[in-house]
Each structure stands twice: as C-alpha cells, then as structure tokens.
Design a protein that fits this description.
Elements lengths: L3 H29 L2 H22 L2 H12 L4 H33 L4 H6 L1 H8 L3 H6 L3 H22 L6 H21 L12 H5 L2 H18 L1 H9 L2 H37 L3 H37 L5 H10 L1 H17 L5 H26 L1 H22 L6 H28 L5 H37 L1
Length: 477
C-alpha cells in the first residue's frame, strides 16, 4: 500500500502550486484582461463546465473508489475495471461534444468564438483519467504533470495576454493547458494496465452506480457555477467579474484543505472493504479538527486583511470584492468540514443516497435564493445564496455522518480555534488602524505575520494546556 505520508506530501505540493498559480496570474489578468472580460470568460467557462461534468459523469469519485477496491486483485482485474469505465467515459464525451456544438449558436451570442474554444475544456475533462491514478494512490505522477503544465500556463499568460482584446488567447491557454494535462496521464497508462476489448455488458454494469454519484456532481455544480451563469444573465459582466474574483480568493486556500480529502478517499475506500471502522473514525475526526484549524484561520485572516489585500492584489477598482469577501470568507469554514465528511465518509462508505439528498436540497435552495436576490443585490445576492446553500449541505452531511463524528474530540478544538480567530481578527483591526505606512505590501506582510503568530500561539497553547489537564484528570481517577 502506498505511503499515506508521501501521498499527502505530493498532494500538498500540488495544492500549493494551485495556491501560488492564481496568486501570480490573477492580479495580472485583473490588470490586463480587465474585470468585464474576465466576467465574460467566467460565464462561458461555467457553461462549458456543465457540459464537461456530463462527459465524465460521476467518475471523479466513483472511478476513484472503484479502482481503490479492485487494485489488490492484480493487473488483469485492474485493467478490466478501468477499461470498462473508460469506454463509458469516451462514449459520453462524443455524445456531449455533439450536443455542445449543436447548441452553441443558440446561446453563444457575440462571444460565440469563445464558446467554441471552450470545447477544449470539455475534451480535457472527457479524456481525464486522474481518477485512475488517485484510485491506485499514485499521486506522484499527477503532481509532476500538474507542475509542468501549470508553469507552462503561467508563462503563456504572461507572454500572450496583454489587453482585453486577448480574451480568446486567454481561453485557448487555459483550456489548452487543461487538455495537455489530461493527455499526459495517458502516456504512463501501459505501465499499470493491459489494453483489451471490453463487452457492452461489462460497460453497462457501471452506469447505474456511476449515475448515483453523478447526481451530486450536477447538484454541486448548480451552486458552484450556476450562480455565475445567473449573474451573467440577470446582472452585469462587471458584477460577475467581482463575484468570480472574490470566489477565486476563497477557493485558493481551499485547495490545500481539499487535498487532504483527495488523498484520504481511496485509503478509506480500501479500509471500508476490510471493515476497519476504528481507523476510519480516527481519520475522519482528526481530519475535521485539522480542517477546522486551517479553515477558521483562513476565514478570519482573509476577513481581517481584505481592505488592504484587494487593492494590492487586483487594483483600486476592485474594492467591491472586499465587501463580498467579508461574508464569502465564512464559506471556507463550512466547506472545510463538508469536504472531510464528503470525501472521507459519505463517498468511500457508499452513502450515495444521503450524499445525493444533501446536495440536491442545497442546490434547489441556492437557485431559488439566486433567482430572488441577484436581480436586487447583484453579486452580494449570489454570496448570500452560496452561504445558505453551503450551510444546508454541512447540516445534512453532519446529520448523515453522526455515527462517525466524535463530538468530544471536535467541539473543544473547534471552540478554541474560533476564539483564536476572533481574537486575531480584532487584533488585526486595531493594528491596521495604528499603522500609518502607505505601502500596501508592507502593511500586508505585517498583518499576515502578526495574525499567524497570534492564531498559532493561542491554538497551540490551548491544545497543550487541554492535553495536560486531561492527563491530570485521568491520573486523578
């Protein structure tokens, strides 16, 4: 079995790159492509994203989980299972591509060419076999690929995107980079599998369970991307641009937290076969505590520095993003816990029905809130809809996962982290009012360093003191 620590290191390295990459490209795009054109890109990418999820259905989770369970059966069994699911994926890609090109004239509008270019993104999703590598816990391959491609994408953006008229160039770079990233993974497939024909019946057997995990994929997409489509259709490109950039700031650090779930899903799927419930419970509760620690720090940290960070990062014309981040940053805490319960319990333990109910209910609520609030409040309406939807998902996840959650191990650390986050926020607000230097960079460095020291000191001391108190109580008994 692959080393869990090594896989966490590889996945953390990849997620770190995912953090660094937008930190380089986002401020550059904000100043060259501009807020309005970035809103256009976000709108058409969101539509292509929907077509993409139909191309891969629920394989990101189902394929990962299934491969994890059969990998111990030898190369023949692994190859057979992989090729059956791959055949289904290719068929769906062909079908989705036809529908996409037929429909583009009806919704493409003045940026129809941009919509056509986005097909490369759909192709990249339809050819993506990263779920196979995740299932066999081979994270080194996917990490190395991502590093190479991401560096190439960054270089191309800096070289070729110079002004708002370069929208199509930016789309080619982003979608083309994703396609190259998917194709690279095919090179090493012969090392793990033997290509052979599969029967239609063998392929069909995967459709029903795959569709079971496709339902939540669609539902998750409804409140992760429909808000952008609804903003583009019901508000302005500018409001969409502000919301997309704010959402990007929130999702940059979320990559580090989500990386834990990617690594743990195949490990817990394998443990579920051997019925090692004690280990599963330990992993889940430890992950919740770690995710809470990081999520609360990031939430209050972003909230505290947003008025200095936004003009430094995007420029002075983006202060609307700071208003949105005041509320949107809360999503980090909610998503952090939801990600643990989804990827480390509900999916690997095949709680598909419960998973589906949670995201379907949340998706419906999100669309309703967006429909009511976006015409009135624009981007802030989308923020409120996202907060409500994510909260509902978390509440339902917790309800369906109540057997595995140990409140004694979670509540105290959670309260400690929350208190530390509030103290950090208050301290940074006082510090910001005291600082007189005009350099935003210097202010940010001081704020981030001070906030990190305050939060880490309080949480670490709190955990150490609580551990000592626990030892004394047990000794007294």
């Amino acid at each position: 079995m692959k080393s869990l620590k090594k896989n966490l290191i590889y996945q953390s390295a990849y997620q770190l790159l995912m953090v660094i990459s937008p930190l380089i490209t986002s401020p550059y795009i904000a100043r060259t492509l501009g807020n309005e054109m970035y809103g256009v890109y976000s709108y058409y990418y969101s539509i292509a994203y929907y077509f993409g999820i139909f191309a891969i259905l629920g394989l990101a989770n189902y394929g990962n989980r299934t491969i994890a369970k059969v990998k111990s059966g030898g190369k023949e069994q692994l190859s057979k299972t992989f090729l059956q699911m791959l055949a289904m994926q290719i068929c769906m890609l062909l079908l989705v591509s036809i529908v996409y090109f037929v429909s583009v004239p009806f919704w493409g509008g003045e940026y129809k060419l941009n919509a056509v270019i986005e097909w490369m993104y759909i192709l990249s999703v339809g050819l993506d076999v990263s779920w196979f590598y995740f299932g066999i816990e081979e994270f080194k391959t996917t990490t190395q690929r991502s590093f190479i491609v991401k560096i190439g994408i960054i270089a191309c953006i800096l070289l070729f995107v110079k002004n708002p008229s370069d929208l199509n160039k930016y789309t080619i770079i982003m979608a083309g980079g994703m396609l190259i990233s998917s194709l690279i993974l095919w090179v090493q497939l012969p090392k793990y599998i033997v290509f052979e024909k599969v029967s239609v019946n063998d392929v069909v057997q995967h459709i029903k369970p795959n569709l079971a995990l496709f339902v939540p994929v669609v539902s998750l997409a409804l409140f992760h991307y429909t808000d952008k489509i609804m903003l583009g259709a019901m508000s302005t490109w500018q409001e969409l641009g502000y919301y997309t950039n704010s959402d990007k700031i929130v999702n940059i650090p979320m990559g580090l937290i989500n990386g834990l779930g990617v690594v743990m899903l195949p490990r817990i799927s394998a443990l579920s076969v051997s019925s090692e419930s004690n280990k599963i419970e330990k992993y889940v509760n430890t992950s919740i505590v770690l995710s809470l620690w990081a999520g609360i720090a990031l939430c209050f940290g972003i909230k505290a520095v947003d008025t200095d960070f936004i003009p430094f990062f995007f420029g002075k014309g983006y202060m609307r993003c700071a208003e949105l981040l005041e509320w949107l940053s809360v999503v980090i805490i909610i998503k952090a816990i939801s990600n643990v319960l989804r990827t480390q319990y509900l999916i690997p333990m095949e709680k598909d029905k419960e998973f589906n109910i949670s995201v379907i209910v949340a998706a419906i609520v999100n669309v309703i809130f967006n429909y009511i609030l976006i015409p009135i409040y624009g981007a802030m309406g989308a923020v409120i809809g996202t907060l409500v939807a994510e909260s509902i998902v978390l509440i339902l996840y917790c309800y369906f996962s109540k057997k595995i959650i140990d409140l004694k191990k979670v509540i105290f650390p959670g309260m400690l982290f929350l208190i530390a986050g509030i103290i950090m926020d208050i301290a940074l607000e006082i510090l910001k009012n005291k600082m007189s230097m005009e350099s935003l960079f210097v202010r940010l460095v001081i704020e981030v360093c001070a906030g990190s020291i305050i939060y880490c000191t309080i949480t670490f001391l709190g955990m150490i003191l609580s551990q000592k108190a626990k030892v004394k109580i047990e000794a007294g008994k």
